[in-house]
Amino acid sequence: MQETLKDGLISLGVITRAHGLSGEVLFRPYNPESDTVRPGLVLHVQGKATSLVVKGVRAARKGLLVRFEGIEDRTAAEALSGLHVACQRSDLPPVKEGEFYFVDVIGVRCTLEDGQEIGRVKSVFKAATDVLVIEGPSQEFLVPVVEGMVLKIGPEGVVLDRSAVEPPV
Question: Does domain 102-164 correspond to CATH entry 2.30.30.240?
């Protein structure tokens, strides 16, 4: 789930396990299409005053195989398993005109086409498609980001089709 953390850090993903004997780890980014994780990037371990500098990256079937400076063997790599990492916002590639990061919609107002407010975006996660978690006054909605349900999305707000939040009759 991509989110903005305290200190302006942006969550990028989780280190799932050690890979091989030489210190590589399997990293699952929240956005598999992103090329943010690259040599020289400083990743901050969430919840700890620790950072890791990316030494090398290569594609893998279930994510990225990443090497970090100072992590030279399997034992050191295993100690990283399960850690969630983040980077500074300034380390993210710039967005093009009309694009945004999902983290930029967290907290924005969600309305239906007629302007009726139903809540705010609490978070975004990846399933078969991206899914918005919208916190309403009395319930939470999970809305897949697909044509026909999400009519408009961006840092200025989210507009949903009524069918996205009401069960069919």
Answer: yes
User: pLDDT for 92-115, tens place per residue?
Assistant: 888 888 788 888 899 999 999 999
Question: Coil, strand or helix: which one is 14?
Answer: strand
Share of the chain above pLDDT 90, in %: 63
**Coil vs helix vs strand at 32:** coil
User: For the chain, where do the domains classified as CATH 2.40.30.60 start and end?
Assistant: 6-91
Q: Please name which of 150, 141, 149, 145 lies closest in space to residue 128, comparing C-alpha atoms.
A: 145
Q: What's the pTM? A: 0.72
pLDDT, tens only, 33-68? 888 999 999 999 988 888 999 999 999 998 999 999
Chain centroid to Cα 37, Å, comes to: 13
Torsion of CA 126, 127, 129, 134, to 10 degrees: -70
CATH number for the segment(s) 6-91: 2.40.30.60
Mean pLDDT, to the nearest integer, of 77-81? 95
Q: Who's near 115: CB < 8 A, 6+ residues apart?
A: none
CA dist., res. 18 & res. 35, Å (int): 21
DSSP 8-state secondary structure symbol assigned to residue 75: H
Structure tokens that stand for 37 in this block: 């994780």
